């Protein structure tokens, strides 16, 4: 493997794994609002107008904004405008005092903050315009990624305009990932890269396990992780499988339920980062894996998740915790002494099994979907390590795991194209 390929893998990891507080869709709105607030010196706003793409709206409707105890884009925009640090990226949401929380909720419920769905083709788009009582304005626009502020205007002066990004111009590392293979990822993570150069991957362990512990220590959302950990009757299975599912769900509970701890993301999503991280860490602890083995397993997991997600839209009707769990399958296969062929079988089983896991918006029920993705993954790994896989004559599964992955991308990009609009219609109807 040449030096360029190794550099691109490291770039993909460092670009895709970021620290974020709360769900990244309302965080993007808070970031745009924070930039407006900074432009206007946090002057008391007369109005804050938020316009977002349908996918952002869908994924921000029901998720709790950290530190506020409430959900919704008016809350996220109010928090960002009043207290957010635009230089902090996905960490824009600060720790709030009681007085700050009261002021945020007061603004959010004042009628000054309005939210509309923008008529744009983008999956990820945010525009926030703030106006002060004396008529000064600030406008911030985000597109392409959750932190890509591409346009800022204050009053009539354009502060900067980098042009709205297009799907036709992906980042270099993303283009590289679309051209790689699972075998090359395995070779990089297991054989080619010195483990000292991958130490940064442990930040995913530190942050996402802390979130899981927070999910056990406090009741967030539906308390899925707590429920699985304390299940009786049919669910009373005190074993590694149960612990992996419970710990991963608990981290998602905390993240979606308003925890003020940071999540390490994967492909722009905290839940994907959690799903690619926690199962691998729990398995490594149970099996007494070395630190070096854990680093390589986490590298495998996150790179595989990035690889699969490179074929998906940035936001889609497909719940990508399922593809992130395919990354975890690869990492766990490695820890179990398996081969890249075992990992390939596990991924093909998962794509042949639950490729229709639907994202119907972010909220506390995301922890249930996370637990489903992880449960599917563990079943697939168990079967794959026994040499079982889905035959290429079945469904969307191909002979090659890489072609199967590309088929999943086509299924989600084209086959689910109409699903988002239907979900959004249902969600808006019940909230009117």
TrEMBL record:
Pfam families in UniProt: SDH_alpha (PF03313)
Domain of life per record: Bacteria
Location of the Serine dehydratase-like alpha subunit domain: 201-425
Entry-linked InterPro entries: Ser_deHydtase-like_asu (IPR005130), UPF0597 (IPR021144)
Family: Belongs to the UPF0597 family.
Protein name from the UniProt record: UPF0597 protein FC31_GL000749
Organism of derivation: Limosilactobacillus antri DSM 16041
